[in-house]
Amino acid sequence: MRTKFLIIVLLQVLLLTGMIGYRQHWVSTGERILLRTAPVDPRDIFRGDYVNLSYDISSLDLDSLGAPAGIKTNDRIFVSLTPDADGTYRAVSAGAMPPTLGKFIQGRARHEMQAQKWEVAARDDAGALFRLRPRWFGGFATGERILFCLDKRGNVLSQSKEMPASSYKPQCSSGNPLWATVEDIKETRFKQLSVEYGIESYFVEEGKGRAIETARNARDLMVEVSLRKDGKGIITGLVMDGKALK
User: Fold this and answer.
1) Is residue 52 exposed (0-12), middle (13-18) or buried (19+ Cβ within 10 Å)?
2) Which of 68-77, 79-88, 161-170, 235-244 has the lowest mean pLDDT?
3) Other CB atoms closer than 10 Å to residue 46's CB: what's the count?
4) pLDDT at position 108, please?
């Protein structure tokens, strides 16, 4: 009985050691890339010491990238990547087979849906014209004065309408404020595919989760990922405000 128990314990130790060794090999030999995170639904509940992550590549514009033929929920999908000026990678195409050239990441297709994107022309009080691409702009109209909250790269984090008859004055909880009057709104509908890559959560040190979530929703968080040859990724670190988190 004791021998059988010792064999079980030894097998568990060997299995754990093998898993740790395999992960370390993956991290040390994989190609490193940086991915820009995207805001997560604010209703999502913080889960202890894990931060939920979403990426710009989590939602694919199939009309721009080309829709893989016959893709279904839970099918494997391979997303080709190219670097941007800030060192992060963005999607340039997607397919059911791995590409023969360049970097790519492997994921699973989740939901295909009709989505909208907006291009908004707005002029500030000094007369400067801004062309903005908010994630959502339903319910706003030309001629309205809007407070846009912008990140460091000029992306719209949120927007709110000025209410002249109310004493309430909108403010930015994050980002830089831009008061501007809407001159033109262009709405485009497209096919969007949500994709999961197995890197949607990350264990963090106790007490740091809220700060990381705030940076994520302000688009100030980047994730370093190590890619295997088959495109599977594993998180190797976080970068917040240009500094690696330890």
Assistant:
1) middle
2) 161-170
3) 12
4) 96
DSSP 3-state helix, strand, coil percentages of the chain (rounded to 5)? 20, 45, 35
What is the rounded distance in angstroms from the CA atom of residue 92 to the CA atom of residue 43?
30
Please determine, for residue 46, whether its predicted confidence score (pLDDT) is greater than 80: no
pLDDT at 43: 44
Q: Report in angstroms the alpha-carbon separations of 41 from 46, 73, 76, 149.
A: 11, 21, 25, 17
Which alpha helices (DSSP H) does the chain contain, by range? 2-29, 62-65, 209-217
CA distance 28 to 19: 14
- Residues 72 and 127: beta-carbon distance below 8 Å: no
- pTM of the predicted model, to two decimals? 0.77
CA distances to 3, 11, 101, 138, 224 from 109, in Å: 47, 36, 22, 27, 22
Q: Which residue has the tokens 């990381």?
A: 212
Q: Which residues pair with 185 in a beta bridge?
A: 120
Domain boundaries, the chain: 131-185
Structure tokens at 122: 């707005």
Mean pLDDT over each residue of the chain, to the nearest integer:
84
